[in-house]
């Protein structure tokens, strides 16, 4: 070209070739030179505690400046209430927080904040759904923590689609991630979930952010769990426990009290266990009820447990322990809305069934930990020592664990190692077989 298309001058264009690099890409001078990793100050990326111990536990000691956190959960589970508690603790520490709501008006958020006691002069509130306006609020307020509730309601000018669409969510999240990295503002995004419980929006949304948290809860229970799914600054399998009340959401440092029913003495059909939820050991209680019936197909029901594992334990108990339930309705349930899906609950399920059938209670202060195989053997499970230590902390005096456990057990609690179901029945005093059983003890 002899004439410049921009200024219209002739002969002002000089011929030149860009530097050749593999793949045809063009190299660009970096804005800042690369430095040795030993010269980087690690304290600059230190976590700042939010003031809520259970939330900091899942985050990994607190919020890292410049990080982006995605908190997803079902409608009404308490996401906004938890974040209001977070900004209240953040503001009480002398830091500034900006809460942007796109689903409610500012007045509605203020009413909820008054009900939960989350009103503070360091909390700034804005009801906006335009991304550019939100960035303008950040420049004016200059907060150290930004809450966007929710990312599905924010729209970016210039991006295709409507609010909540794949393109819009990706554009909004990319802009907020860039804001966090350049300004050092910690950003917490509230996300919706699909019917399957997955984070709504493109899968790349979870890759863009630094931390992904799932807020879980049952409508019929006040217990709420914040579960880590992805965490670049800490463990991704931590769990934080909260309790939803009329005056807000409160952290529960010891959730085992919710899952264990306190009573005066031992009751037949009730057995305590220690389940692992991520890296957290929680003591729970399993109850079983066997009721005689004349029905051709007795009912089997499980609540809080995997029904397939309960059916397997019924077959194993009948084959290797003489617990016949063909003429009984069987009901097995956890206490307090606890959900247990790991195989470590097998031994507790078996002992609860055997205790209910024989009408012999398991002694008070006993916990059962172990997986049961189809041949009646008791297999070891991970983190047995941690489970026993949690049981000891709560005052339990006897733990029944698999014989193959090679971990060092804590002192101060009696530990009985069992290799099969017969030994487990003897250790708990429930080893009574049906008179018409033809099978020899395992």
From TrEMBL:
ATP binds at residues 73-80. Residues 1-23 are annotated as: Disordered. Pfam families: AAA_25, ChlI. The keyword Translocase does not apply. The keyword Zinc-finger applies. A motif (RadA KNRFG motif) lies at residues 230-234. Keywords: ATP-binding, DNA damage, DNA repair, DNA-binding, Hydrolase, Metal-binding, Nucleotide-binding, Stress response, Zinc, Zinc-finger. Residues 329-442 are annotated as: Lon-protease-like. Residues 44-193 form the RecA family profile domain. It comes from the Bacteria. Signal peptide: none annotated. Belongs to the RecA family. RadA subfamily. HAMAP family: RadA_bact (MF_01498). The middle region has homology to RecA with ATPase motifs including the RadA KNRFG motif, while the C-terminus is homologous to Lon protease. DNA-dependent ATPase involved in processing of recombination intermediates, plays a role in repairing DNA breaks. Stimulates the branch migration of RecA-mediated strand transfer reactions, allowing the 3' invading strand to extend heteroduplex DNA faster. Binds ssDNA in the presence of ADP but not other nucleotides, has ATPase activity that is stimulated by ssDNA and various branched DNA structures, but inhibited by SSB. Does not have RecA's homology-searching function. Plays a role in repairing double-strand DNA breaks, probably involving stabilizing or processing branched DNA or blocked replication forks. This is DNA repair protein RadA. The gene is radA.
